[in-house]
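Why does residue order matter? Because the sequence determines the fold. Keep that principle in mind as you read this record.
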Amino acid sequence: MTRQQTLYRQLRDRRNRLTPPPGLAWPEISDGKIVMMMSPRPRHQLTATRVRDQLSGQLTPELGVFEATDTDDEELGKLRIPDLHVCAYAAMETDDPLDPREIALAIEIVSPSNPENDYEDKARDYPAMGIPHYLILDPRDGTWTYQWEIGRLAGRPAYENRLHLPYGKHVTVTTEYGTWTIATDGLPRYSAKDMGLTP
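Structure:
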């Protein structure tokens, strides 16, 4: 076992014994650190529900859309919790964290308090973990960013393709399991209060 794996196991054990304080979600692990995030706001959850409802009707019977599932790669020392992900029902029939290579599509809804976690940290971690398609929905400015096809950049895994467009433009995701379309024109935007601004 490598030193990184030993540290990761220690962090995961500590994390699993934590009770998140009020207002904080279950923590993730990346780069030798426990990452704490604010609990999702109502518009965040409304976005997740509308996207899940759209995707569910397009999937083959063996696939589902799941929320907030521990997804870990011990070798890399990373535990992430996508807001939504698409995978086979069979992959969820375990007490262990989900293997990220089982995920066809990961979706994150940007938090007003820490957008770098989705745009930078997870955009780095997800291709390294082998997740082939990654969609970011941003209710702050009403845009979406879709990244796919894992290649290499500066010696590390990275998405080779990136599309960034405003809400109102449909997202089309083509995976080995099929092609799915998400309409974004009905997705909510954060309010000034959500973003901590004066209304």
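The longest strand covers residues 143-153.
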